Amino acid sequence: MQPDIVDPTDRRVLERNYDYAQKNLWILSMWYEYDVQRMIELLAINDVQLSANDEKRFGEYYESVRAERSDRV
Fold first, then answer.
1. Among 24, 62, 22, which residue's Cα sits nearest to residue 44?
2. What is the average per-residue pLDDT within 51-57?
3. Over the chain, what is the mean pLDDT?
4. φ, ψ dihedrals at 47, nearest 5°
5. Model pTM score
6. Is the separation of the CB atoms in 48 and 39 below 8 Å?
7. How far apart (Å, rounded) are the C-alpha atoms in residues 12 and 17?
8. Of 10, 5, 73, 70, nearest to 43 (Cα)?
9. Nearest CA to 56 among 34, 25, 27, 14?
10. Residue 2 — pLDDT band, cuts 50, 70, 90?
């Protein structure tokens, strides 16, 4: 029997890990070993809402990624 493989970029996994990181994008990006910009993109693409603090810091870029994505669809 093989263990289940978890995709760390799956929306549910991202949400759970963001919660574990206390909704702190800096911590989450260190955990994933991604730069902050890439982490914001992953959260935006998967519609994971930012915390109020992260929204203040990164909300503009987050929304631009979401808008760009919706323009493509």
1. 62
2. 97
3. 93
4. 55, 40
5. 0.87
6. no
7. 9
8. 10
9. 25
10. low
